[in-house]
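Quick one:
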Amino acid sequence: MTTASLPEIEGCGAGGSEQNVSRTAFLLAYLLLGIAFGVVLTLSEVVSWFRIQEMFRFQSFRMYGIIGSAIATAAATVALIKRVKLKAISGEIIAIPSKELGSGVRYAVGGTIFGLGWALTGACPGPLFALIGNGVSVMVAAVLSALAGTWVYGWSRPRLPH
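Output:
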């Protein structure tokens, strides 16, 4: 049996101080980006229950325009990543595997569950943290429910038909 000291175990978080500094810097960058994203969501009123209700009642194009521009931006970004073979910070080429659509039942079921959760909470999962940051403390229940649902899916995934 071989033994290793904690700094030798990759990913244990007990590496040298240089590794901890870079990890802290990345976490701080992620935190600041998350705060900036929350501010943008708030200022654009994407987190507004009223705006979401308007969308589901087909009373305003605003949210559809925001969602559509997000889809277009994501599609262009993925195409660019594939075309220029962009590399991650670690140096590995970012590979985005193709998905097999199959009959599409899993997407219909998943989309329905997602839509029901969105309609019941009045919020998409993305803005939940921004809503909590804005003082809408009832959204803590939605976050905990989303985490529980994610755990249940992770537990049941091996048993589900994919």
